[in-house]
Design a protein that fits this description.
Layout lengths: L2 H32 L2 H9 L13 H9 L9 E4 L7 E6 L16 E6 L5 E3 L6 H9 L8 H23 L3 H6 L7 H15 L1 H15 L5 H7 L4 H8 L19 H8 L6 E9 L7 E8 L8 E7 L4 E6 L6 H14 L5 H28 L7 H19 L1 H14 L8 H23 L2 H27 L3 H4 L4 H23 L2 H5 L2 H4 L7 H10 L6 H34 L22 H20 L6 H28 L4 H27 L1
Length: 688
């Protein structure tokens, strides 16, 4: 690889990595705990589990109990049994389709948990747990409307960073892996650690980049699928999610509904070692009602092992919808992506390995940020540049590293929370967790000492981590040695925190003051108290450029080109999202078919796509290669045109489509990208 291409890949890897690093760290850190969402919920409630087989649950009792509070005729009812035999399952009641006999206020959508022994029901808010909170944080669900898509795009750029990182480090991956030396310069330590641990976690990270992109941007899959199915959305959903297709309501039945217990018991043993996971009751109370049992074979039998059976209550006949021993392309692809992402296959140790690899990835992200900080704090750089680098580093490190002690603290808070406040956990977590996290991030940002940030967060997180199993034992009497082998969920959470706290304390003890002395910020300290005077002095002084400055300016130019290319890419993605955001309506039975069309894409659409997405992608590519002022002038003019168009579209949406929040959010994002792109292009053009 020639030097120019190497610099392009290196700067692209650096810029893309720095842009997504904080969000990516949050995704992996929260995702590590999200692997044990159900175990954390059990640990919080201190309720011993009886591990009842799913086929042995008294579904008729649960239905009768639910019917005391809700009108069930005409509904599609789903029992989510989970992957483990816990005492609590989740029930989804879709809106009743019986509009004649059921009043409108009694037909609404309901979702709640229910105890299989006593029928105790809790709403989603009442049942909200720290595990659920971290699971939602994993894909930014707390950010309305765009959180999931944001996580999808971050995964996409993570994939981009992985590929460019492998290309950049390809020749020295093996040597850096085997020649890690903690006694060399700090930048070299972080570089070697970044490479070595990146290689260890590379397959895992690649899997998560692919599957994360799929789940975060799965709505984009529907765009080509919609054309393939000739706008037949019913057929599309029948193939993609057959169990969720709602059958048409005919009429209520006068006959009693068949026993769900008998249906499950009779069909749970259709295949050896088959474990039910969902029970669907479609058009319950109707003449065309159906019962459906969905589950999986034991993991030791087959990796892609989903199967389902349906009972037609009118005819009394059952049919096999999906045989787990027969390959199903669409179903198996979706199942494999889900299993690889959520690690819900194999024994417990698989999730533990995922947990460890997720935390290793967090370290890879942090080491990448530290490499960037160390590399850009040189004496040859201007004070303004060094201040900017230091500020970004302090912000990034404060946000990322404070997440460890804050998470440990709220495990303690939830465990010590009085029983009468347990139903308020959702409010407590939203206000308390985010509030304290923000305060900690601000504190570490203005402390301006990454060494202190690292040491203090490790120490606080470790101390709090050791207190978690201790608090659990004191509050509930569920000590680690008592739960081992009997209540594995409670034992697992305590063991995970003991392990995390031990590793954190070990790392704290290994970080010595002499390591701080190796930092570029210690060798070339910044006088923050006198920074205004120093900046003014630097601005008034003139000195000839030396070769180091020239090389640095070339590096800045490459960084700017990579940044502009990413902004063009962001803009193209924004146009694509704007085109397809309405595809979400296929889930609410809204047609996307345009009347008077004949299945062919109008030529005007092709022209529109070429002028917007097409040219944006072309400029993204050319920005990495061209260095002529004429090119940057052309790019600037086109960026201004797009910016004016996006601003007009945004204002029009505010005036005429105020209720369409998703479109307004996307258009606001595109306006912001257009402004930054225009400023960057103007700066680039002036520098030539």
């Amino acid at each position: 690889m020639n030097k120019r291409n190497y610099n392009v890949f290196f700067n692209t890897h650096t810029v893309s990595g720095i842009v997504i690093s904080v969000a990516l760290y949050v995704i992996f850190f929260a995702g590590a705990f999200a692997l044990f969402k159900e175990e954390i919920a059990v640990w919080e409630e201190n309720t011993p589990q009886h591990y009842v087989e799913r086929a042995a649950i008294d579904y008729d009792f649960l239905l009768n109990d639910i019917a005391q509070e809700y009108e069930l005729p005409g509904r599609d009812i789903r029992f989510n049994l989970g992957h483990t035999n816990l005492d609590k399952i989740y029930v989804l009641l879709n809106q009743s389709k019986d509009t004649v006999n059921i009043s409108e206020e009694d037909r609404g959508y309901e979702y709640f948990s229910i105890d299989i022994h006593n029928g105790l029901k809790k709403t989603y808010e009442e049942n909200y747990s720290l595990g659920e909170f971290l699971y939602r944080l994993h894909f930014f669900h707390q950010i309305p409307y765009v959180g999931l898509y944001l996580s999808g795009f971050i995964s996409l750029f993570f994939l981009f960073a992985i590929v460019t990182g492998v290309i950049v480090h390809w020749k020295k991956i093996v040597s850096n892996f085997y020649h890690f030396n903690p006694k060399v310069t700090l930048k070299r330590i972080w570089t070697d650690a970044h490479t070595a641990l990146g290689v260890i976690g590379l397959p895992f990270q690649f899997i998560y980049a692919i599957t994360g992109t799929y789940f975060g941007l799965s709505i984009l899959v529907l765009l080509p699928a919609n054309f393939l199915y000739n706008n037949n959305q019913d057929k599309l959903m029948q193939d993609l999610r057959p169990e969720r297709v709602a059958a048409e309501w005919v009429a209520p039945t006068a006959d009693p509904m068949p026993s769900v217990n008998e249906f499950v018991t009779a069909n749970a043993n259709t295949w050896d070692r088959f474990h039910p996971q969902y029970v669907y009751l479609k058009n319950y109370g109707g003449v065309n009602a159906e019962y459906q049992l969905i589950g999986e074979l034991d993991d030791s039998e087959k990796y892609l092992n989903a199967g389902s059976i349906t009972l037609n209550t009118q005819s009394g006949k059952t049919k096999i919808d999906r045989d787990p021993h027969v390959a199903d392309y669409l179903g198996d692809i979706q199942l494999s992506l889900g299993r690889l992402h959520f690690a819900n296959f194999g024994p417990l140790w698989v999730r533990v390995v995922y947990f460890i690899l997720a935390l290793i990835t967090c370290f890879v992200i942090i080491s990448g940020v530290l490499i960037w900080i160390e590399a850009r704090n040189k004496k040859s750089m201007s004070l303004n540049q060094r201040l900017y680098t230091a500020k970004v580093g302090h912000i990034y490190m404060g946000i990322c590293l404070s997440l460890f002690p804050i998470t440990a603290l709220f495990f303690l808070v939830i465990k010590l929370l009085p029983a009468h406040l347990m139903d308020q956990r959702m409010t407590l977590l939203y206000v308390g967790f985010f509030g304290l996290w923000l305060l900690a991030s601000i504190f570490y940002r203005y402390k301006r000492d990454n060494y202190f940030t690292n040491k203090s967060t490790l120490l606080l997180g470790s101390i709090l981590g050791f207190c978690i199993p201790l608090a659990n034992g004191l509050v509930s009497g569920q000590w680690l040695w008592k739960t081992f082998g009997t209540q594995y969920e409670i034992c697992l959470v305590d063991a995970l925190w003991l392990g995390l706290a031990t590793v954190g304390l070990f790392a704290y003890c290994k970080i010595k003051p002499n390591i701080k002395a190796q930092s570029a910020f210690s060798k070339h300290p910044i006088d923050y108290k006198n920074r205004k005077a120093l900046l003014q002095k630097e601005a008034t002084s003139e000195k000839p450029l030396n070769p180091i400055d020239i090389n640095f300016n070339e590096s800045i130019e490459e960084d700017m080109k990579a940044k502009i290319a990413l902004l063009w890419l962001f803009l193209a993605i924004g146009f694509i999202i704007h085109h397809v955001y309405g595809l979400a309506t296929v889930y609410t039975s809204e047609s996307l078919y345009i009347e008077s069309t004949h299945g062919e894409t109008p030529m005007a659409w092709h022209v529109y796509r070429i002028l917007f997405e097409g040219l944006a992608l072309v400029f993204a590519l050319l920005s990495l290669q061209f260095n002529k002022k004429g090119f940057w002038t052309t790019a600037l003019v086109f960026a201004i045109v797009l910016g004016l168009y996006n601003t007009y579209h945004f204002v029009a949406a505010l005036l005429h489509e105020l209720g369409n929040l998703s479109e307004i959010v996307v258009l606001a994002w595109m306006v912001a990208v257009s402004v930054i792109l225009t400023l960057s292009l103007s700066q680039m053009r002036k520098s030539l």
